[in-house]
């Protein structure tokens, strides 16, 4: 009897302990369930109440979540502020989930134990919160390849343990933060090894205070920013440096002489600045292998003799540096020399390669110098010499020489070969591995920021890298059979870009754990590439072939143990567990509901004035689109797809269904609904209703049959626009914006005016749409709103971007860009060129509109008289003035476009004819868009436009 009582007592104690252990993880479980509600494409085994044992990507200690690792798993949605509740979290890796949008929540600063934060190549935007400076345990911070704006938070200077800082490839601006008074800055990161801040919009001088002898930096990357001033001499104090990239900025003045103290530097990029003066003797930099100082204004009277002593040098680029004199033949004897580019200088005399030139030498490019002769001692096999634009190539009979051509080596077609085997036929989407096994590889791109070699044709580099990767993956017990590399190129940032395929072993595909582990080990720099490749990051492609998930069987063990104890005890435990689970479920639901901006719309007092807009259920939308059938799909874009639907009353509607990865925040979605339901104007898209149900975000509009202005200008809509039609579209858009600015109560700033947000009805009347980023002026008495920068690059007001002060004139600027897009049919930013800058330059250069000819859209019928074009361009230029105060209000813009229509003989208030009445379908062969493959025959001459003078 005593033994039975003891057994019951022990069982009750065990039950108490089990509940106690579960209780310690209650908040973590609630947080994970809340995250599940804001994310899409979470792993399918995220079910049950034991994330620590059953859920992919989750690791725990003492029932607390210490790691979330879900890189490259297709995750979509926003990073909820609830993440800050995971008090014991040490690692957060959500890299390469392109569908992860929205801003980085301020509550990230609550993760006091976080040591690794990796959010590489997502779609996050907004500013990096200052609260990130609260993560005092942080060692690794990688936020590169997102869309962050604003400044680098000075609070990062608090992270005294930080080793790796990477915020490159974003849109960050402002100065580099350094400490001042009690405020810390990046200069306090004495333990940091890496400052990766390239490809942003950082401005101002590089603070001398940023560098000191206390620092242990090995990589300083600030390339492709807008930095000005001189290179601080304090840079020469950081003798641990191995890589310096300050290229493509606006730096000026001389290179500090003590930069030669950086004896460990292997790659140095100072090109495309405004540097001047003499170049210091760098002979002491014994490890320097890659030096690019092109496009500066140095005073170099002779080819520096010390260059011939640099035994490690593989690449020398000194294009457009005012280099003079003759190159010593001993320079070409350097044993590792591969590439020499000295174009557009004043080099003269005879080019003497010598007989003992480097066996690795592949390219000598001396275009546009004053070379008079070539002494090659019988030829230089395997070396491409380019002397076009030199006197030697201008002599009679010499122009036909190979070295008088400027042809560059052809594209590198390297691809990992098969390992002595013949691949068989693979099924659809499968690929053969180098070991000839068919499978679904995990693919992506490796970006090497500063390789020390320039001979991309040498296969040795790639085979060495392949062997290193395979050995690394297998050493760490990852299920990898082999890897394949292909298509090596140098991109515009001089990064070496390589396509990577990783093939699974013992199966034909990876599971989520496999891809996430590979991604983590690459982007967390656990993998060290072979010497010469330099720092890198990995951008993964979406993987759509995940294997089946094995659900943990731990619950079965509990059942077996419970059965042996006895049915009655098991029943008690189950009842307790049921009560506890219900409690936790309701708690999680309350937490989720707290973050739902629509939660009060069900109560009478909280329902906004929707004026007829209806809240549809998912099932209703599904029914009226015939289950989102392909036949009803009428458009697609980065945001998602648009479907045509029919309501039970016969009304035609257009349903804009957001992709999981491009959903707005719930509050932005709610803002768009409330604004659209409140404004009513014939040039604004009318809202019929919305759907916020089952993880979906859908807006239900009136059906606008002719798509967006962007579709029309790109040729996808099937009809062309003449001059009068374009003026009327501009007028309709301007009237819609003028209504928002001056007649809506309170006034509204659209904040995302662009051709993709201008819809065209059956008569091509313009209707402004998409109010997800709009701001109301109801909460301020100022003439502006201070807010984080949002919008679309190319249309974004530069004054708003720099000041973060939003005004109606920000919409005016964006509208000005649309005006230019209307007459050119070009994207605002195309092939790296900005349409505003290009047209300003063309007009200023010619002092009239003749310079615009090459920009005008040929489908506009350039043979006709474009009455008022000059005034139109003048209006567009006023709208895109740098200062908002110099731009006209939209009401004035409306009047000017009305006058242009009157000048052209058209009634600005008359209804347009239907498209079917006056426009031919492209499919019938009547017209072609200028950028389609067969738009113009090679060498075709277009008529000059007839421009009516003012």
Automatic annotation (TrEMBL):
Transmembrane region(s): 557-583
Any Pfam family hit: LRR_14
Signal sequence residues: 1-22
GO MF: ATP binding; protein serine/threonine kinase activity
Segments forming domain Protein kinase: 628-901
Enzyme type, top EC level: transferase
Highest rank taxon of the organism: Eukaryota
Keyword Mitochondrion part of the UniProt annotation: no
PROSITE patterns named among the record's database cross-references: PROTEIN_KINASE_ATP, PROTEIN_KINASE_DOM, PROTEIN_KINASE_ST
Keywords for this protein: ATP-binding, Glycoprotein, Kinase, Leucine-rich repeat, Membrane, Nucleotide-binding, Receptor, Repeat, Serine/threonine-protein kinase, Signal, Transferase, Transmembrane, Transmembrane helix
Ranges where the record places region Disordered: 910-950
Keyword Protein transport attached: no
InterPro entries linked to this entry: Kinase-like_dom_sf (IPR011009), LRR_dom_sf (IPR032675), LRR_R13L4/SHOC2-like (IPR055414), Prot_kinase_dom (IPR000719), Protein_kinase_ATP_BS (IPR017441), Ser-Thr/Tyr_kinase_cat_dom (IPR001245), Ser/Thr_kinase_AS (IPR008271)
Localisation per UniProt entry: Membrane
Documented EC number(s): 2.7.11.1
Binding sites annotated in the UniProt record for ATP: 660
SUPFAM superfamilies linked: L domain-like (SSF52058), Protein kinase-like (PK-like) (SSF56112)
GO CC list: membrane
Topological category with respect to the lipid bilayer: Single-pass type I membrane protein
PANTHER family associated with the record: LEUCINE-RICH REPEAT RECEPTOR PROTEIN KINASE HPCA1, RECEPTOR-LIKE PROTEIN 55
This protein's name: non-specific serine/threonine protein kinase
């Amino acid at each position: 009897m005593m033994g039975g009582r003891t057994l019951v007592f022990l069982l009750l104690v065990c039950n108490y302990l089990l509940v106690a252990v579960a209780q310690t993880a209650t908040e973590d479980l609630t947080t994970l369930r809340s995250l599940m509600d804001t994310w899409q494409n979470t792993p399918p085994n995220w079910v049950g109440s034991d994330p620590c044992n059953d859920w992919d990507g989750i690791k725990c200690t003492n029932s607390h979540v210490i790691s979330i690792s879900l890189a490259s798993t297709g995750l979509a949605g926003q990073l909820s502020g609830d993440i800050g509740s995971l008090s014991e979290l040490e690692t957060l890796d959500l890299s390469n989930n392109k569908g992860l949008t929205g801003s980085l929540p301020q509550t990230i600063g609550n993760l006091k134990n976080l040591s690794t934060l990796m959010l590489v190549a997502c779609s996050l935007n907004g500013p990096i919160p200052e609260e990130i400076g609260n993560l005092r345990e942080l060692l690794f911070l990688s936020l590169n390849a997102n869309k962050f704006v604003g400044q680098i938070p000075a609070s990062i200077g608090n992270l005294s343990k930080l080793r790796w800082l990477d915020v490159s490839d974003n849109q960050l601006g402002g100065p580099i933060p350094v400490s001042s008074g009690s405020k810390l800055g990046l200069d306090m990161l004495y333990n940091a090894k890496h400052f990766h801040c390239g490809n942003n919009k950082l401005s101002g001088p590089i603070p001398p205070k940023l560098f000191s002898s206390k620092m242990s930096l090995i990589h300083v990357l600030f390339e492709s920013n807008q930095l000005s001033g001189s290179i601080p001499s304090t840079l020469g104090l950081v003798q641990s440096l191995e890589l310096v990239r300050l290229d493509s900025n606006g730096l000026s003045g001389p290179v500090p002489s003590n930069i030669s103290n950086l004896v460990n530097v292997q790659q140095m990029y100072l090109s495309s600045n405004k540097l001047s003066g003499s170049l210091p003797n760098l002979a002491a930099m014994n490890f320097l292998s890659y030096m690019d100082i092109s496009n500066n204004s140095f005073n170099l009277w002779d080819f520096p003799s010390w260059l011939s002593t640099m035994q490690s040098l593989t690449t020398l680029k000194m294009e457009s540096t005012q280099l003079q004199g003759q190159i010593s033949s001993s320079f070409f004897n350097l044993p590792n020399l591969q590439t020499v580019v000295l174009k557009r200088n004043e080099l003269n005399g005879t080019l003497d390669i010598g007989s003992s030139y480097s066996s690795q030498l592949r390219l000598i490019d001396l275009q546009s110098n004053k070379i008079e002769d070539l002494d090659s001692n019988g030829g230089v096999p395997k070396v491409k010499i380019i002397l076009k634009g030199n006197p030697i190539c201008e002599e009679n009979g010499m122009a036909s020489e190979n070295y008088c051509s400027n042809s560059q080596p052809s594209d590198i077609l390297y691809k990992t070969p098969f390992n002595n085997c013949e691949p068989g036929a693979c099924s659809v989407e499968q690929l053969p591995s180098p070991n000839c096994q068919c499978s679904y590889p995990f693919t992506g791109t490796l970006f090497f920021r500063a390789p020390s070699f320039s001979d991309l044709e040498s296969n040795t580099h790639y085979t060495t890298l392949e062997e290193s990767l395979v050995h690394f993956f297998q050493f760490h017990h990852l299920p990898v059979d082999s890897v394949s590399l292909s298509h090596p190129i140098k991109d515009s940032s001089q990064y070496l870009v390589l396509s990577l395929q990783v093939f699974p072993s013992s199966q034909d595909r990876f599971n989520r754990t496999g891809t996430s582990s590979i991604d983590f080990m690459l982007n967390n720099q656990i993998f060290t590439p072979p010497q010469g490749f330099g720092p890198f990051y990995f951008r993964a492609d979406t993987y759509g072939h995940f294997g089946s998930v094995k659900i943990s069987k731990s619950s079965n063990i509990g059942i077996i143990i419970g059965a042996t104890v006895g049915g009655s005890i098991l029943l008690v435990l189950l009842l307790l567990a049921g009560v506890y689970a219900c409690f936790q479920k309701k708690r999680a639901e309350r937490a989720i509901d707290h973050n739902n901006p629509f939660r009060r719309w069900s109560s009478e007092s909280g329902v906004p004035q929707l004026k007829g807009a209806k809240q549809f259920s998912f099932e209703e939308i599904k029914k009226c689109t015939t289950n989102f059938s392909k036949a009803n799909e009428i458009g697609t874009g980065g945001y998602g797809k648009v479907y045509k639907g029919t309501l039970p009353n016969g009304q035609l509607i257009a349903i804009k269904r957001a992709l999981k990865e491009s959903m707005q925040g719930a509050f932005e979605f709610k803002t768009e609904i409330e604004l659209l339901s409140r404004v009513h104007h014939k040039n604004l898209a009318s809202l019929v209703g919305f759907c916020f149900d089952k993880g979906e975000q859908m807006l239900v509009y009136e059906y606008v049959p002719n798509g967006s202005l962007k579709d029309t200008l790109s040729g996808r809509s099937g009809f062309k626009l003449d001059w009068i039609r374009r003026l009327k579209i501009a007028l309709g858009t301007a009237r819609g914006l003028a209504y928002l600015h001056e007649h809506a109560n309170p006034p509204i700033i659209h904040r995302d005016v662009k051709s993709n947000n201008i819809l065209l009805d059956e008569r091509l009347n313009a209707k402004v749409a998409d109010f997800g980023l709009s701001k109301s002026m109801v909460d301020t008495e100022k003439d502006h709103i201070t807010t984080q920068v949002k919008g679309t690059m190319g249309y974004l007001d530069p004054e708003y971007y720099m000041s973060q002060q939003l005004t109606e004139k920000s919409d005016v600027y964006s509208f000005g860009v649309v005006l230019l897009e209307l007459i050119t049919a070009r994207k605002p930013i195309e092939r790296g060129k900005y349409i505003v800058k290009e047209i300003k330059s063309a007009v200023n250069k010619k002092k009239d509109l003749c310079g615009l000819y090459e920009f005008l859209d040929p489908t506009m019928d350039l043979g006709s008289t474009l009455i008022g074009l000059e005034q139109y361009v003048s209006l567009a230029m006023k709208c895109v003035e740098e200062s908002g105060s110099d731009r006209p209000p939209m009401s004035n813009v409306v009047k000017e476009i009305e006058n242009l229509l009157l000048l052209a003989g058209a009634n600005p208030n008359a209804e347009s004819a239907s498209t079917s009445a006056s426009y031919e379908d492209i499919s019938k062969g009547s017209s072609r868009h200028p950028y389609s493959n067969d738009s113009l025959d090679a060498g075709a001459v277009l008529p000059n436009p007839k421009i009516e003078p003012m």
